[in-house]
Design a protein that fits this description.
By secondary structure, this protein is α/β, with parallel strands linked by helices. The chain contains 6 helices and 10 strands. The strands form 3 sheets. It has a 6-stranded mixed beta sheet with strand order 5-7-6-8-9-10. A two-stranded parallel ribbon has the order 1-2. Strands 3-4 form a two-stranded antiparallel sheet. Helix 2 links the parallel strand 1 and strand 2. Helix 2 runs parallel beside helix 5 and helix 4 crosses helix 5. The longest helix has 21 residues. The chain is globular and about 45 Å long. The N and C termini lie close together (5 Å).
């Protein structure tokens, strides 16, 4: 994916640096996040979302509308060395046990979730708000855990939001950033996928 982007997409974006980038696609979540991270330098990015019931694509249409993003995190920080975990849920809750079976002994677990969960609760404007909240959490984690080694994102949400997350990340501040793929019926259900900031990400 990295090579394809550099050879086929990036040159076209550089021809028109003010071009608006709209992601309309279906891919595993880690690939959507990774693609977003590749276009992060092109600020005008948006994503379309697909209704589960009708398969139609939309950006700002009314959906089964979540209205709030609920954020939770540790009460205190630490100067210890280690990793932090972020759970981000818009479709289904992510169990702490599933996270801890994959990342043992994280310094902290932060949680972001929409007040309504479901397949069609996110549209474009809400995705922007969720990303803003995620960036605030990442900034707070950087302040509370100044010696953190990496961030691990466990994500249950639409592909378009994954793309927007990737596009919002700053390589200098936020990497290394671990992404995971969910496998139904397996234990543990999450497997490490693409690590942003790792040369092997392709």
């Amino acid at each position: 994916q990295t090579q394809f982007f550099r050879e086929r997409i990036k040159p076209r974006l550089e021809e028109e640096p003010n071009r608006h980038v709209l992601y309309v696609g279906k891919a595993p979540i880690p690939l959507a996040i990774h693609l977003g991270s590749l276009v992060e330098s092109f600020e005008a990015t948006d994503a379309a979302f697909q209704r589960h019931r009708t398969n139609e694509w939309y950006y700002d249409a009314q959906v089964d509308s979540a209205s709030e993003v609920v954020v939770a995190g540790p009460a205190t920080g630490s100067r210890a060395v280690g990793d932090i975990v972020i759970k981000l849920s818009t479709t289904a809750l992510i169990a702490d046990d599933d996270v801890l079976s994959t990342v043992s002994n994280p310094l902290a677990i932060y949680s972001l979730q929409t007040d309504t969960l479901g397949g069609d609760v996110v549209n474009g404007p809400l995705a922007k708000r969720i990303v803003d909240e995620l960036l605030r959490v990442l900034a707070q984690a950087h302040k509370d855990f100044p010696n953190k080694s990496a961030t691990h994102l466990f994500f249950a949400g639409p592909m378009g939001l994954g793309f927007e997350i990737g596009a919002s990340l700053n390589p200098t501040i936020h990497f290394p950033f671990f992404t995971y793929q969910y496998f139904i019926g397996e234990q543990p259900p999450y497997r490490k996928a693409i690590v942003l900031g790792h040369e092997a990400a392709s």
